[in-house]
Amino acid sequence: MGEQKWDGSLARARARDRAPRPRLGAAITMTPWTLVDRAEAEDGARLELFRRGSHYSIRVGGSLLRNSRVHDSERALAQLALEALAPDARAAATVLIGGLGFGYTLAAALAALGPGAAVSVVEIAGAVIRWNRDLLGELNGQAVADARVTLIEADLCALLRAPLAPFDVILLDVDNGPRAVGRPSNGWLYSPEGLAALRAATRPGGVVAVWSAGPEVGFSDRLRGAGFEVVLHRVSSHAARTRERHFIWLATRPRDLAGGV
Ligand SMILES: C[S@@+](CC[C@H](N)C(=O)[O-])C[C@H]1O[C@@H](n2cnc3c(N)ncnc32)[C@H](O)[C@@H]1O
What we know:
Layout: H1 10-13, E1 34-40, E2 46-52, E3 55-60, E4 63-67, H2 72-83, H3 87-91, E5 94-98, H4 104-112, E6 118-123, H5 126-134, H6 137-140, E7 149-153, H7 156-161, E8 167-172, H8 192-200, E9 202-212, H9 219-225, E10 229-236, E11 245-252
Parallel strand pairs: 5-6, 5-8, 6-7, 8-9
Antiparallel strand pairs: 1-2, 2-3, 3-4, 9-11, 10-11
Helix pairs in contact: 2-4
The structure holds S-adenosylmethionine (SAM).
């Protein structure tokens, strides 16, 4: 599939979180967003959780990080990556998820995995972990309470820079895309050094899946340059938003022919 040019602007990325436009003549009864909790991130940024009806949104420094209403592509991130594994490997796979958010990717991974699987979730914001434990379980079927889940409050970049036992699958959704990073230090993840670290943290035959709100020219080639086989998927952001697409790269670490693994 061809890759489109995308300027990486957060404004475009956030378009997925727009409220649907009311039909002309329809009565507009807008329930306001209510602040549920506020916390300070480890870098001093203001983290806020808002609620409107059954929906939540997380803001960082006043800017929207994600809205719970639109989540089909977050689920697809886990589904596509796990479908790429052989069924017997899926039953007891080890999975690393970068970025907990509303826990949709985690819930989709748990649904696709067997009882012998183990899922480590790395989340930099302690408040996001706490909100998932205390408030957000209704969105994701209490995913963080699942016995297969280990929550790690840490920076994914720091974790990947240290030696790690390799995973069958790594699901990466910490940013709006390879260039539209939420924090400058996350840019490392998509650099040749970061991709080499992701490859080293993946078993031969395993998969790294990367979520993005938009296309990214040259990113498939960058993944190939890091030693992955690459398939790019365009997926719907939400069933009701027929034209809006998000992007998921599936990067498979080839099996080591010499070692026969
Ligand atoms: C967009 S949300 C993830 C959405 C998630 N896939 C879901 O299903 O709701 C991104 C998350 O990554 C976290 N994050 C950002 N940078 C990170 C990093 N370097 N290490 C770990 N977590 C990070 C943010 O705090 C946020 O919770």
